[in-house]
Amino acid sequence: MRRTVYEIIFARFQQMRIIDESGEMQADYMKFVSSGLMPLNVDKLTSDTIALAHNGKQNGDVMADPDMEVRIYPELKMAEALTFRNDYMGIYQEVYPEPGKYYPKLKKELNYFLNNWLKTMIDIQGYRLTVEERE
Fold first, then answer.
1. Residues 24/17, Cβ–Cβ less than 8 Å
2. Which of 14, 38, 63, 120 supports an S-S bond with 87, CB 3.0-4.6 Å?
3. Beta-bridge mates of residue 44
4. Domain edges within the chain
5. Which pLDDT score is estimated for 135?
6. 82 falls in which pLDDT band (50, 70, 90)?
7. CA distance linking residue 3 with residue 82, whole number of Å
């Protein structure tokens, strides 16, 4: 049976050791690095939501390039993109802008992007965990 993009994203988080087999984030903060590329910062926002971000600096300000919030569904072994932000381009997008409302096309686009971003970091760029902080 073919896996959904949400199941693949969940599996990629496990492969990177961001979440464990049960879907729990391994630490409240993690930093991944790859030679010559911006570090990836991973923060636990709530019990089921994490943020992933590459951050640069412009005129002394920290800039997201990109920053995404992702909800983890441990019982379903799935994860989905909630937001996308790129400060250099002035973009902020929310899949669920208010209760009971969502943007199906944006949901599909952001999850496609997230899946490819994770795949690239794993398969091509070789990101590896360097910092793991527990609360």
1. no
2. 63
3. 50
4. 5-133
5. 61
6. very high
7. 20
